[in-house]
Amino acid sequence: MSEQKTFTLPKQERLCSRTLIEQLFLGHSQHKKEWPVRVVYQVVKRKDEDDAQAEVLMSVSKRYFKRAVKRNLVKRQLRESYRLHKAILTDVLALHPDTKILIAFIWLSGQTYDSVKVEKAVKAALEKIVDSLEQ
């Protein structure tokens, strides 16, 4: 039987650790830009096998949206887009079981977009990450 892909985003795949977040933004991370999203990512060693292979952070600045309702809308769109397309990333990470990738999706625009445009941007950014990991 073929392995069924799960389209979930459990708590362990969310980047919450303050030390890992600092490591991501202060360390030797790489950047990719796919308008209206900027992606910051870094490959690190996994501590144990129970650790998720990819941890994700979604950030929408108060500078762009003063109201939390719009910030939350954009974060929901980003999370949903990542959730649907994370298989692009997990297929490559399966080849390297001792590594883990930390990813931050940062919103760059002052306006909201429909979910299709956000999904295309997230998918393109994930493909760029995979291309850089394969090199």
Shape: globular
User: Which structural class should the secondary elements be placed in?
Assistant: alpha+beta
Give the CA-CA distance, first to last residue: 31 Å
Strand order of the largest sheet: 1-2-4-3
Largest sheet: 4 strands, mixed
Question: DSSP helix count?
Answer: 4
- Helix percentage: 40-55%
The tally of beta strands, per DSSP, is 4
| Radius of gyration based on Cα positions | 15 Å
Averaged pLDDT, please? 91
CATH class: Alpha Beta
Secondary-structure element pattern, one letter each:
HEEEHHEH
Which stretches are poorly predicted, pLDDT < 50 over at least 5 residues? Answer: none
CATH fold assignment: Ribosomal Protein S5, domain 2
Write down the domain tally: 1
At CATH level 2, the architecture is 2-Layer Sandwich
Strand coverage percent: 15-25%
